[in-house]
Write a structure and sequence with these properties.
132 residues, 60% helix, elongated
Length: 132
């Protein structure tokens, strides 16, 4: 995983953690997140927010990056954009080899318990025959 992606994931994690603590009263852009995005990406995020049709009053060509960020307005739009982008990248990866749902250590412990149960059953006396 490249350094930018890893750093962004950490920032996203912190943003989401803070959001989980309380309902946000304001739209917020985290300053540390901004340095990871080019002007082109900021415009792509804005275009996505407006479903492909940015209103004419927002002349993106003339806006500075700060204006673009104000137009984006919230970290969640950036997170949404990036997670969608990463999801498309994941589709290109091969599937992981199948692995058991139960970890090997748990399966081994269960097997030992089962073996002990079987040994205990074998050692138990079958009962004495009744004499008349």
């Amino acid at each position: 995983m490249n350094q930018n992606k890893q750093s962004l994931m950490k920032i996203f994690s912190l943003v989401l953690k803070e959001r989980s603590k309380a309902e946000s009263e304001f739209r917020i852009i985290s300053p540390e997140m901004v340095k990871f995005f080019s002007r082109k990406e900021l415009i792509e995020i804005i275009t996505k927010i407006f479903n492909g049709t940015v209103p004419k009053e927002h002349n993106l060509v003339e806006m500075e990056n700060e204006g673009l960020l104000k137009l984006i307005g919230d970290d969640l739009f950036i997170i949404s954009y990036m997670t969608e982008k990463w999801s498309k990248e994941v589709l290109l990866l091969p599937l992981a080899p199948e692995h058991p749902i139960i970890p090997a250590s748990v399966a081994a412990a269960s097997a030992k318990i089962e073996a002990k149960k079987n040994e205990t059953k074998k050692e138990e006396p079958k009962g004495e025959e009744k004499k008349d």
